[in-house]
Amino acid sequence: MCGRFAQTNIIKATSDIVKTVIGKVDNIDNFNISPGQEAAVIKKYSNGRALELAKFSIFPNWAHDLEGFRPLHNTRIESLTTKPYFKRLATENRLLIPIFEKNMFSIITIESKNKIHNRQPMIINKSKINDYLNLKNNAAEVLQSIKPPELDYYQIGPEINNPKNNFKELINPLVSK
């Protein structure tokens, strides 16, 4: 995982799994969400699931001096059981795909079988959403019970590295010359 992802038509895309939209979640396309930006996330409340905005990156509570601290934006699935900070987060707060901390999030990653990158996001199928969002369940156990789907991989151009770029062609496959 390199720290970039896209969300398109997010309200419509999540309408079958969320009950409400909280805050200013616009139904706009973003093809280059990078660390530090806000993105739409799904959170469970007592009256159902909601779509809301959260900041993509987390600043752990042990990082007292945020000056010069590089925020975390990916969390290895292995860290959910081995690192105290992530173990605590996984027992107190959960979002879909991310881990939640004070309106911030980090994407949980697993080992990847592709040749482009050694990590990929953990993808949760609809049948496991309630299991994962239920704080009574062990997050790592739920996630480890999910078989990752087969994904198509392709390289994209270097324009994705600039967070100011935000156009549909950013996610098109790189054409080799």
Question: What's this model, at a glance?
Answer:
The chain is of the alpha/beta class and 177 residues long. The protein has helices at 10-13, 79-82, 84-92, 129-133, 139-144, and strands at 5-7, 20-21, 30-33, 38-45, 48-56, 74-76, 95-96, 98-101, 104-111, 119-121.
Instruction: List unreliable stretches of 5+ residues.
Output: none
Provide the residue-averaged pLDDT: 85
Shape type: globular
Reading the helices and strands in chain order gives EHEEEEEHHEEEEHH
CATH superfamily annotation = SOS response associated peptidase-like
CATH fold-level assignment: hypothetical protein yedk fold
CATH architecture type: Alpha-Beta Complex
Distance between the termini: 25 Å
Structural class: alpha/beta
Provide the helix percentage: 10-25%
Assembly type of the chains comes to single chain
> What is the number of helical segments per DSSP (H or I, 4+ residues)?
5
Biggest sheet layout? 8 strands, mixed
Number of domain units:
1
